Amino acid sequence: MASASYTDAIMLFGDSLTQAFSDGSLAQRMAEYYSRRYDIVNRGFGGYNSDWAIPVFEQVFATKEAREKGLAQNVKLITIWLGANDAVLPGSPQCVPLDRYKANIAQLVDLVQSPSSPHHSPDTKVILINAPPIIEEAWIEARIEKWESFGEEGPKPDQNRDFGITKQYAEACLEVAKDKGVEAVDLWTAIVTAAGGESPKELAPYFYDGLHLTSEGYAVLFNALSSLIVSKYPELNPEKMNMRMPHWADVDLEKPRIAFDSVQRKRLAGEL
Amino acid sequence: MASASYTDAIMLFGDSLTQAFSDGSLAQRMAEYYSRRYDIVNRGFGGYNSDWAIPVFEQVFATKEAREKGLAQNVKLITIWLGANDAVLPGSPQCVPLDRYKANIAQLVDLVQSPSSPHHSPDTKVILINAPPIIEEAWIEARIEKWESFGEEGPKPDQNRDFGITKQYAEACLEVAKDKGVEAVDLWTAIVTAAGGESPKELAPYFYDGLHLTSEGYAVLFNALSSLIVSKYPELNPEKMNMRMPHWADVDLEKPRIAFDSVQRKRLAGEL
Prior knowledge:
2 copies of one chain form a homodimer. Chain A has helices at about 15-20, 25-35, 50-60, 65-70, 100-115, 135-150, 165-180, 185-195, 200-205, 215-230, 255-270; strands at about 10-15, 40-45, 75-80, 125-130, 185. Chain A has about 270 residues and is an alpha/beta fold. Chain A has 2 domains: about 10-135 and about 160-240, 3-Layer(aba) Sandwich (Rossmann fold); about 245-270, no CATH class. Chain A has a 5-stranded parallel beta sheet, sandwiched between helices. In chain A, helix 3 (about 50-60) packs parallel to helix 5 and helix 5 runs parallel beside helix 7 (about 165-180). The radius of gyration of chain A is 20 Å and the shape is globular. Chains A, B: GO terms for molecular function: hydrolase activity.
């Protein structure tokens, strides 16, 4: 992969929870964490479920052929975070039955890991993230507020998400991780643990509309994800990696071009 | 450029002010603004001056040849934000004399715009950003605090930045922009205007150590930069651009793969 991008990247793949690049979002926290190490490539698509994610994935994750030709970055790690929209109640096109959700997530893992996949990328670590809890009351309130702000166009929204059903998808995601032998962040449990319980009042600080995470919610995820990376994939710990380009105080003042070329050579040779 | 990255990107090039991917930083705000439109490629290198930036630029900005082979993203816009470190007082290797600073910035613009440059990229808009004001008292305090926190190792730091000298570099940057016919954000003036004056007290909310910007400081920059983009390069206004991948409610539910392929085809054909 040529010089406009670094050689290596981390891809965040999922729905609106991934797409957010707001203050304190997962993407912002990861971009800061991997600053001057890896680019963070945000491939979050708001509202998408696991059915729709598959054809999208096939377009945003390079083929083996493209990667080998240097046409794409090496994705060292991909987070796959889907389930919140699959768990929408039947009646919405977003709803994906539990079994198909599991099959879809397994298929996404296979698209990366199976040698027969055109996207096979043996160097890419896969981490699944499951759906966080939903605060039903806050969610329906947010939907009605939005409907009112748009002049009450169309039918008044009704409740389309359920705490217990979302939990089934969260548990199913962990089962897929176990079946496929990949790591997972159990975000559902992490948030319930941080909140000290499952009640709307306890969960409130972690969600701004009952579904989407506040910075405090993302902090729980980031802490769990970064701990997992450091313990399971120490080679991906940014604090142990060299920065891209030397620290400014280490620049060879007499021959900066040579110093940089040397860094570049080492990097391309895989020595950095 | 293959599928792990989008075809088009915006590159932020500069020093630590660019490198920051913290809450409310330029990079975070731009990544949120261009969400599902362009990738934001952060190429900020803390402590670097314009001398050292040139060999780095030659390594992070693709050659024309690489781009034409599809080996790199098209950089639709690059911000070049250097000067704060060039303006460090003589005695530090960071210091670059004013005339050479101007020549270096002009050379960076030429590396993108000159047909004889190996990095020539006629589709890349260039926007220069000048150095913001410095709060001398806050900066020396921060340096001494850091020195104390490291056990007072080495000599006690002295003042190495000056308000009036930094202003000369800020003005020089605008002169280069005028000479080269590229747009610029006059961040110096924007911050002084927002602050209502140049006194340390008035400037305080915009800097956390007298040099580096707070979220409030970056907000001034982002507002100026995004307004400039919208007025001068309306084709780069993300609010007028199609999202990468359709809105979830527009997915063809019967044939999602065909719908996505069609979007992809249009995108590759330059119709999106």
